[in-house]
Model the fold of this input.
Amino acid sequence: MPPAVERSTYVLVTCIALALMFRFWVPIEAPVVWQVENSAGVALLWSLFGLGWVLVLVSTFLINHFELFGLQQVFVRLKGQVLPEARFATPLLYRFVRHPLYAGLLLSFWSVPLMTAGRLVFAFGSSAYILIGVAFEERDLLQQFGDRYRRYRAEVGMLVPWRSRS
Done:
């Protein structure tokens, strides 16, 4: 597959897969896995759920939307131009966690006061998908940015904020 359409094709196939999953989702009739009834606990979990989606939204604004969805690559190719060399940057949230978008998704998937069996299957499946994707993305970033990304990886947590003391 030509590199210019690789990312946009991946995004398109992912969106189609999600749309099909949402369209044909059948609730699983099974006992509740967990249910938090304490009002403070419920408020905390819904707050974390919302924070996760805010992290996702903010993270996408910190990077180039058009490049993220593969549109910039296609547009540049259609114009017969060459993509500019990628530059390594760590805007705002990326100084504290390497993948804030994924961290936000994981936080939202798991921070619910009522976890049903169906939601648990979705949370596990989505989490596995994200973790596999992170492994591939980390490999690509190491290949693309070399020692610079290696140092960043040693200093900043992948999904949980932490910074090394070095």
Q: What stands out?
A: The chain has one domain: 3-13+37-155. The chain has seven helices and two strands.
